[in-house]
Design a protein that fits this description.
Chain lengths: ~260, ~280, ~350
């Protein structure tokens, strides 16, 4: 009976992975298609779509824009979230529970609603759309995330260390810089990384709040609406491969640090 | 440090984040509610207050149907995703050797790293008449002719489930590994079999985490525009699609805002239900 | 600091300035349809004038007007719009007058000059750039071409589940109107209600309703065999891959789509915008536009023939154009109320 369950478990694992990895496999395979239609039968392999994608100025610009918006918005969200977490964790502020709720609220609101609200605001205020306006939206969705992660990471150990530092005469800024931040480093990194990822892949806010300089998902969306071709496969695979490399690299670095 | 100075400092730290949230989240939302009570006449927005948009939404069948469609799809997606993700998370947490767990988990969420837009498009290719699934089915002799899989509700649900299984596996796994093994051990000591241990000990302990994950799935699924747009074939429109149509094709901000407020209300109801349930569970 | 290192620093600074200069070059902002996004079309203009062309694509006049509504003055320089909607844009004061002598309309196909649409009180506000037909596209290998000569065969039940409807309400409703014997110019609220039945019936026979790429994909992969509202614009770009993809004008007629290009009244670069318009309607620009990557279509300027290859002209059915033009009708031009009613009918159909 136990062996049957065990065997069933592995079968389920295999099937689940098959399901999860199927679209990625198809995507990457047909990015090498030698033909205009990314569907079976597979003809090729050919690198022409990768060449086209890398030569496509708009796609590459979108890629750069995505990196920039994700990096900046993640950093800003992290900064704001860090300060808010410190403020609420250290001091007993009146209505702290309400404050926490307000800061976390955007997490439960659909991105479409956030985008629509900001679009209405920008229209009324006469503000032109750009990567900045989209970046603001990304900070709105990432701030609650950073705050929640950092707030949860602030435990009694941290407070004890801070108190010790203050007793030794360190000013507030010094305490933050030399004690709080380094002790929270894993949480800070995790929060930044998560915020970066959410911004990087985000579509609807970027779509509604940009004009010409757009992020990669929006550019891919335009690509998908302007002519069927394996170019979409190629850019998708490129993004995928680069991300995998980064994730693996981070894992290896983290492992090496742990061993050292 | 004196208590007053401490509190002032605390406010000082919290202020930037609060201001940001107020300016770029609360204010836009208030503006949206105001717009929802206004009307579009020609190209100008006529301020209300008036419930015209809401009345129109609930009396026009094709618009109300959007909400129904969204709820139906989201319900199915949530149930199926949880049902598929829990065993997967459990197998990774309990069956896979500790050394390999992280790697296996990363493998399970690998497709997160492709662009969301491209991933939905990939499903379109997989499920298409000339796609891999049909090719396999016909190759194995299970079907004679290609099945209509893409541009259907099934395709939309599949695309969603694919995403949420990955998300829920991650969250449920995090939940499971936090469980102290002492619970299972205590149950075993008291004579409970494997199944009984799972049903009466592990499942209830992880239920709050599962419910939270399910709620997240609900919110994200209700508000998603891309997956139904790419995979649904316009066979039926979800609420986000209708909102985008009001915006893109008509520039009707008031109507779009009203529908967004309705979407928000539905999600809030779900939140209250979950929060009430979680509180009950805890007592 | 030595003289040498100072020289190095100075030259580096100058090089930096030189590299930065193009970034400050003029740019042109265009609100266009996807066929203008082809680099083959845009690059020659950018290189010739040393400018950067920014493009934002949109589908459907209503969407375009919504974007313009949400923009500030000076945001946009050039607009591509359905020829039948130029009048609406003029009414809204959006377009700038164009100098008639700068435009080679003398070389155009006579039916495509469309003075009644592109001019107002003797002032030219837009110029036609491309045209084609919304009719029936089909896969010759799967569907009998003779059956496609009669639009009513779509409702016969022979093709249930093998039809795609192009997701644009104006031409599809126009086609259904023709089938009911209503001229598109006579389409009013009452006539629209008569189209409700046929529209729902067509939907019941259809597998999906899709925009440009979804329809192309569906037809190309065999998902569907017929696209209602399709035409050469849908199939020509796939002709190389699958020569069986064809189109025809049924006996009931078809819709003529024509797109015009115009300069916006509050453009910040009116001269550059005019240059762009002139480039697009020049024979070379027309040839590139006709065969652009999103969808193909006939160039309004007949002089483009000299810049198109024989095969390209064959795919576009260049020689049959006079016959086609005689059997096609223009898009309906609804007022705001009728437009809203048509969109509502369309949403009803989608939600069925």
């Amino acid at each position: 009976m136990t062996r049957a369950w065990r065997w069933l478990g592995w079968v389920y694992l295999a099937l689940a992975f098959g399901f999860i990895l199927l679209p990625v496999g198809v995507l990457v395979t047909f990015s090498f298609q030698d033909g205009r239609l990314p569907v079976p039968p597979f003809r090729g392999p050919s690198l022409r779509w990768y060449a086209e994608v890398l030569a496509d100025r708009r796609l590459m610009a979108g890629l750069g824009n995505s990196l920039m918006v994700a990096g900046v918005s993640a950093t800003v969200a992290l900064g704001l979230g860090f300060l808010a977490a410190v403020g609420l964790a250290r001091h007993q502020l009146p209505g702290a529970a309400v404050l926490r709720l307000v800061l976390i609220a955007p997490l439960t609101v659909s991105y479409l609603i956030i985008a629509l609200g900001l679009l209405s605001l920008y229209n009324r205020a006469g503000v032109g759309l750009s990567l900045w306006t989209a970046g603001v939206g990304h900070v709105v969705i990432n701030l609650p995330l950073c705050f929640a992660i950092l707030y949860a990471a602030m435990g009694p150990h941290l407070r004890a260390a801070e108190r010790a530092a203050r007793d030794l005469g360190a000013g507030e800024a010094a305490v933050l810089w030399h004690v709080t931040a380094p002790m929270l480093a894993p949480a800070l990194l995790a929060a930044w990384f998560l915020a970066f990822t959410f911004s990087w892949d985000e579509f609807i806010i970027a779509f509604l709040l940009t004009r010409f300089d757009v992020t990669l998902p929006v550019e891919i969306w335009a690509l998908l609406r302007s002519g069927i071709s394996p170019r979409a496969n190629a850019i998708g695979s490129l993004v995928f491969l680069v991300s995998v490399v980064v994730v693996v690299a981070v894992q290896l670095i983290a492992l090496r640090k742990a061993r050292a | 440090m004196s208590p007053g100075a401490g509190t002032r400092q605390g406010w000082g730290f919290v202020a930037p984040a609060l201001l940001w949230t107020a300016a770029f989240f609360a204010a836009p939302f208030a503006l949206m509610v105001w717009l929802s009570l206004s009307r579009l006449e020609g190209r100008a927005v006529v301020p209300g207050p008036g419930l015209d948009n809401y009345v129109r939404f609930f009396t026009e069948p094709s618009l109300l149907r959007g909400l129904v469609v969204s709820l139906e799809i989201t319900a199915v997606v949530t149930v199926v995703s949880v049902a598929l993700a829990y065993p997967l998370a459990a197998i990774i947490a309990f069956r896979v050797p500790k050394r390999w767990q992280r790697a296996v988990l990363v493998l399970a969420i690998l497709p997160f790293w492709t662009s969301y837009v491209v991933r939905s498009y990939a499903w379109l290719l997989v499920l298409g008449q000339g796609g891999v699934v049909n090719a396999a089915l016909m190759g194995l002799g299970i079907t004679d002719a290609p099945l209509q899989l893409s541009a259907t509700r099934l395709a939309t649900v599949t695309g969603f489930v694919h995403f949420f299984v990955m998300l829920l596996t991650l969250t449920i796994y995090a939940n499971l590994v936090q469980l102290s093994p002492n619970y299972a051990r205590a149950a075993a000591d008291l004579g409970a079999g494997r199944v009984a241990t799972f049903v009466h000990v592990i499942l209830p302990l992880t239920l709050p985490g599962v419910v939270t994950g399910a709620f997240l799935t609900f919110v994200l699924c209700m508000g998603d525009y891309i997956t139904p747009q790419i995979l649904g074939g316009n066979t039926e429109l979800t609420l986000p699609q209708l909102i985008m149509m009001q915006l893109g094709r008509r520039g009707d901000f008031p109507m779009a805002s009203a529908m967004a407020v309705i979407l928000m209300a539905v999600v809030s109801l779900a939140y209250l239900a979950c929060a009430r349930w979680l509180r009950v569970e805890r007592t | 600091m030595t003289l040498r290192s100072r020289a190095v620093m100075a030259s580096t600074a100058l090089a930096g300035l030189a590299l930065a200069a193009p970034a400050a070059a003029q740019s042109l902002n265009a609100l266009v349809w996807c066929d203008h996004a082809d680099p083959e079309l845009i690059r020659p203009f950018e290189e010739a004038h040393g400018v950067r062309v920014n493009l934002r694509e949109y589908e459907g006049t209503a969407a375009g007007l919504a974007i313009l509504d949400q923009s500030r003055p000076g945001d946009w320089d050039v607009l591509v719009i359905d020829a039948v909607d130029v009048g609406r844009a003029v009414d809204l004061g959006l377009l700038a007058p164009l100098p008639a002598d700068a435009l080679p309309t003398g070389d155009f196909f006579p039916d495509l000059v469309m003075e009644d649409l592109n001019t107002r009180d003797g002032q030219v506000f837009a110029v036609t750039e491309k045209f084609g037909y919304n009719t029936v596209s089909f896969n010759r290998a799967a569907v009998d071409a003779d059956a496609m000569a009669d639009m009513n065969s779509l409702f016969s039940g022979d093709f249930t589940g093998r039809i795609a409807i192009y997701d644009y309400y104006l031409p599809v409703l126009g086609m259904l109107a023709l089938n009911e014997g209503i001229a598109t110019a006579d389409l009013d609220a009452e006539a629209l209600e008569r189209l409700r039945g046929p529209l729902m019936a067509l939907r019941a026979e259809a597998r999906l309703v899709g925009e440009v790429v979804a329809s192309q994909t569906a037809l190309a992969t065999g998902e569907v065999d017929i696209v209602v509202g399709g035409g050469e614009w849908l199939t020509a770009v796939l002709a190389e891959e699958n020569p069986d993809l064809d189109w025809t004008i049924p006996e009931q007629g078809a819709l003529l789509w024509a797109q015009s290009i115009a300069v916006l009244a509050d453009s910040a670069n009116p001269d550059l915008a005019l240059e762009f318009v002139k480039y697009i309607v020049s024979p070379e620009g027309q040839a590139r536009l006709a065969t652009s990557s999103c969808y193909w279509g006939m160039p309004a300027n007949a002089a483009a023939a000299g810049h198109l290859s024989d095969e390209e002209r064959a795919i576009l059915r260049w020689d049959q154009q006079p016959e086609f033009l005689a059997r096609a009708q223009r898009y309906p031009v609804p007022d705001a109320d009728l437009d809203a009613a048509m969109q509502d009918l369309w949403i009803d159909m989608l939600q069925q």
